[in-house]
Structure formats: structure tokens, C-alpha cells
Structure prediction request, 448 residues.
Amino acid sequence: MFTPEQKTKDAESAVIVGVITPQESRFTVRDHLDELEHLALTAGAEVTDRVTQSLDSPNPATFIGSGKVDELARLTKERDSDLVIFDDELSPVQVKNVEQEIHCKLLDRTGLILDIFASRAQTRAAKTQVELAQLDYLRSRLTRRWTHLSRQEGGIGTKGPGEKQIEMDRRMIDKRMAKLREKLDEIDQQRQTQRKGRSEHTTVSLVGYTNAGKSTLLNALADEDVLAEDRLFATLDATTRTVELDTNKEVLMSDTVGFIRKLPHRLIESFKSTLDEVRQSDALMHVVDVTHPNFDEQIRVVDETLEELDADDKPTLVVFNKVDALEDQSLLRALREDHPDASFISALRGIGLEQLKADLLALIEQDYVERVTYVPVTEPEAIAKIHRLSDVISEDYMYAENGESDGTQAVARMRFRASPRNNDRLRQTLESFAELRPVVDDDVPVEL
Prediction:
């Protein structure tokens, strides 16, 4: 049994709360509270107790029943708790009513995730995005908040912009949010400029539930040292590296922020410029932690988030990671049968990475367009552009004539395969040579 004396130094003790409804079974809520405890641990808290209640629907005034609120108040007093965390987002009224009874700090799931993001934010972009999301969250809770932007407190739930004094009003928050949005617009423009610089390359984004091993996989494929830790939301900023899939076959691969169940919509909106990496990618790799007992639900959460991002129609390779840690090999065999197009790897140990590269290359090239074109040898820039934006299968030289003029000219007959995007980039260049035709047949070579 936990006692207040057992608290780790500097760690806050927390009680977590979940509600069992007809839509969610007791076992589902238990799993959700397991994840909430992991989130709390990530934020720096130690969970001492769990409180659950079965309800047909949450109480509009206190989320849980009034009797359960009294029980929670007695428990927090007995445990000398610093914090109570609900697994669902609470309304301002519910927060105010419960907080008056328990006499300690109260957070909901959204507030906890925002706190973790605030502690993880390192770059200017991440800090700006998190602050905007937090202010949006605080704005609807001004009736019970007592914070000021220039004054900060310690502990979970108080990072980032800080909680303001009572004189803070919506006008001040709106003004600050407007400035943050201007900053994010500037960051977005900078990132668009960066993307234009690499627009000729095929781009792949790593997506998946948080802590699925995306950063570890990027390190393994790119032979780089991107931050990879066994904790939730270790990555907030998109990190892009060059990955060689085969000889002269390179892609730009981006690691993105991990998804999670009930990821706050305000975070998705705030992280638009980061998540644009997903939207604008040519293909996705959906990394799944095969050792997680609820990986099926995690796959569903990621698919739903991709749909919310309008990125659910992109070519996607499902990658089951951590197969080396899977004790039940029969599950692995069943997964291979159910997901014949998926890859099975261990990013940490380098298992299956060569097959993964082959699978990803096949996915990328399945929509490639094959064309034949004739380009005058006097147009070396056009020939070089074809080499740069496509895979040239063959290149022969011969004479050709233009239907609109007399005479012949030396041309390069080029057969190539290109991605739909690069094919569109080549179309305008090649249209100017559309009238060129071989003089006799394709077997008449040109001596240069």
C-alpha cells in the first residue's frame, strides 16, 4: 500500500479517474488507465490509486457521481495527493465543481498531454505550437483559472505559458494567440520553402502511435542519431533524413510526432505546420509496436488521425516493429497471414530492414509512369532533367524529323519511369518535343 512517505523526491503523487460506460467495457477502461498512468509517469508523477465508476453517461456537473466525488476527496486527503487526473476532457464547470471538493490540483487528459508537450518542446516551432494549444485550452477555462503569462509555477499542468492571475481576460489571450499564429505562419512559410528545395525527391513520412519506434527506425535506415527514447512523445518536431533504398534510389524520410488516443484537436490544429509533412508526403510508413497488447486499437487510432489530417488516401506500408521481443510466435504467423503486404522488423536490432527497403521501394514505384520521349541532343538541360527526375531505362541516339519543319536532327530516344509528381514536372518540358519522330525506325543509330 502506498503511503505519502514513499513518494519519490520531486515527484507529484496522482490519482487517476476513469468512467465505465455502456460504450466502453471495464477491460477497455483498464487499458486506457494503463496508458494514462504512463502519461502521468512521463510528466513526472507517480500514480498511487485508480478510481473508476460505472455510469450510463458522465455527470454534466462533476463527470463522476457526487458520491464518488466525496470518495475521491477522502482518498486524496488520505494520500496527501498533489494531483487528480481524469482520463477524459472535462468541461470548465466540471473542473470547477470537482476541484472545490478535492482541494488539490485537477487535470484532464488533454491538460496532461499539453503539459508533456510543453516539457518536450525544444525548438521555436514546437514551443510556439504548444503555447498556442495551451492558451486555446486555458481560454475556455478562465472562469476558474487564476494565472498570468509573466508568472509561472512549478509542477505538472503549469508549464508553458503559465497560469495567469484573475485579471487575465479573453482579450489578452486572443491577442497573444494572434501573435502566435503569425509566428506559425512565418514558420510554415519557411518550411514550405524548405520543401520546395527537396520537391524533386520522393518523400516518405513515418507515422504511428507514440513510442512505436519511429525514431529508432529512422536512425537504423539513415544511419543517423535522431533522438530516440523509450517514452511517450520523445519527438515533437519533424526530422528529415536521406535514406537509400537501393543503388541510386534515395528518398527523404521524415519522423513526425506520435499519435495517441484522444489526441486533442487543438494540438492537431496547432501542429499543422509539423503535420503538413504527413499531408505532403508521397507515401507513409505506419509503424506499429507489435508487442503492445492493444496494437489493433492503436492502428485504428492512427488511421482515424490520418483521416482527420486528410492523409488517409496515401500509399501506406504497415511496419510491425519489435518482432524480436514478441514471445508468442503464433501471433506473428497470424499477422503475416492477415497482413501479407506488411513488413516485419526490429528497428533496434536491424532485423528485416533490407526487406523493408524493398517493400517500400515497391510501394513507391507501383504508381510510376513509363514513357518514351525524343529529345534533341542540342537540349542537354532537358536530358539532364529527365535523368534527375526519373529512372532512365534506356537511352539511344538517332535521327528524327519534326512534322512542322523540314530537315532532320539528332535526338536521344529515352525510355524512363517517373513518379506521378515528377512526371507532371517533366510534362511541360517534353511537350515542346512532342512532334519529333524517328526518320525510319528505332534501329537507325546516330554516330556522335
User: Anything to note?
Assistant: The first strand starts at residue 12 and ends at 20. The chain has four domains: 8-112, 121-193, 201-363, 369-438.
